[in-house]
Each structure stands twice: as C-alpha cells, then as structure tokens.
Amino acid sequence: MFPTAKYSVLLPTYNERRNLPVLVWLLHRTFTENNLNWELIIVDDASPDGTLQVAQQLQKLYTPHRIILKPRAGKLGLGTAYVYGLQYATGNFVIIMDADFSHHPKFIASMVHTQKTADYDIVTGTRYAGDGGVYGWDLKRKMISRGANLFADTALRPGVSDLTGSFRLYKREVLQNVISVTESKGYTFQMELIVRAKSMGYRTAEVPISFVDRLYGESKLGQEEIVEYAKGVLKLCLKV
C-alpha cells in the first residue's frame, strides 16, 4: 500500500449538465472535510445537452489538478467508460459512482473508513443491508431491482447483498486486474466485476447507502438492459 492514499473518482457522464456542478461541489466538500487527497476523472460520451462544456467550467474553478476531462466521441457504453477513465487515474484507490445523484458523496467517508479497518480490496455500497434503502422509485422499479439481485444471488452466490449496485471503492490494482478479465460492457458490467473479484480471491466489504432516484434527466434503464442483465447472469454461471 502507498504511504499516502489518493482517491480517483471515475465519473462517466451522459446528459448530466444539471447534476454535475452540485455533485462536484459535494465531492470537493467530502474529500476536504475528511482530509483526503483526490481527483475526479470525467468521461463524457458526447452529451448533446452540453455536459462537457459545464465540466470545462468546473475544471477552471477546481483546477485541472482536481478535475481531469477525458471526453469520448460518442455513447460507447458504461463498461468501456470505466476502462478508458482508469488509464488516467493516478490514485491508488478508485471510486466508481453515478453522476445523477443516486449516489451521494457523503457515503465515501464511510467507505474509506471501512476499507481501512481490514485492508479490504473492495468496498461496495448496498441498498439492501443495514440502514440502506431506495428512495424515489415506484413499486415496479423496486421489484425489478430486488428481483435482479435475488436472481443473481441465487445463481452466482457473489457474497454481497447488492450485486447490481454501482457505488464502489476499489484498490486500483484490484480494479485493473478484475477489469482485464471482465467481458461485459453494459449494465451487467458492475455485476461481473464483483463476481469476478470473488472468484479471484479478493475481499469485499459492504457499506449501507441511501439510493435516491436521479434529480434531473431520464433513467437510462429499459427493457433491453433488463434482458441483457438476465443473459449476463446466465453467461457468468457457465464461466465463473
């Protein structure tokens, strides 16, 4: 382990111009209050709403030392965004999260503390353990999420309560190793990461989080992604 920890936040964005300024401010406040060294790597997939232009203004405000912009030419998928952004991370820990406020930066402090307690390889936020929860979803969306987790838990036995969650802290070398053998690129990417990590012997801890539906914009989850998820679970059953 490095003598001084540095946390690289990987933030894929697509049409998040209204969320980004407040999210970056909250990240800055969280890391500053907890005396943590950090950087934010924004991977924008050519958002038509001007997200990149907002990010450029934020970079001027917080300096290029803190805000690193790595835009791409089009919407190329969540998994590839993490792979791409990881190339530019200089921290020895990497945090992945959503840009739509479903993941509040205030939970980062608990994730960092938990990682330190037993030198965990991964700390993942969970909506389904302790005082974690989901807010702003209708009953149908909650049932889909719960059902997806139960399906994957039964089939894969991943050892975590929230396999479809995407708010996590990784040791950088662990994430690099797991990504190198991960095949999924879309919404099953997060699930495969945690399943692969377990099969490789990495240790994971959980931190309860409050998941809140996005403040602005529309959800990117549709019927196609649900089908992709189910296929991804079955595919992993055969390989892991």
From TrEMBL:
Q: Which InterPro entries match?
A: DPM1-like (IPR039528), Glyco_trans_2-like (IPR001173), Nucleotide-diphossugar_trans (IPR029044)
Task: Domain (Glycosyltransferase 2-like): give its ranges.
Answer: 8-177
Per UniProt, the enzyme's principal EC class comes to: transferase
Q: In which pathway does it act?
A: Protein modification; protein glycosylation
EC number annotated for this UniProt entry: 2.4.1.83
Q: Classify the source by domain of life.
A: Eukaryota
Catalytic function, reaction form: a di-trans,poly-cis-dolichyl phosphate + GDP-alpha-D-mannose = a di-trans,poly-cis-dolichyl beta-D-mannosyl phosphate + GDP
Q: Name one Pfam family in it.
A: Glycos_transf_2
Gene3D superfamilies the UniProt entry points to: Spore Coat Polysaccharide Biosynthesis Protein SpsA, Chain A
Tell me the compartments it is located in: Endoplasmic reticulum
Please list every transmembrane segment annotated in the UniProt record, as residue ranges: none
Q: Carries keyword Chaperone? A: no
Which UniProt keywords are present, listed alphabetically?
Answer: Endoplasmic reticulum, Glycosyltransferase, Transferase
- Give the protein's biological function: Transfers mannose from GDP-mannose to dolichol monophosphate to form dolichol phosphate mannose (Dol-P-Man) which is the mannosyl donor in pathways leading to N-glycosylation, glycosyl phosphatidylinositol membrane anchoring, and O-mannosylation of proteins.
Q: Which family does it belong to?
A: Belongs to the glycosyltransferase 2 family.
The record's PANTHER family line, in alphabetical order, gives: DOLICHOL-PHOSPHATE MANNOSYLTRANSFERASE SUBUNIT 1
Q: How does it assemble?
A: Component of the dolichol-phosphate mannose (DPM) synthase complex.
Protein name per Swiss-Prot or TrEMBL: Dolichol-phosphate mannosyltransferase subunit 1
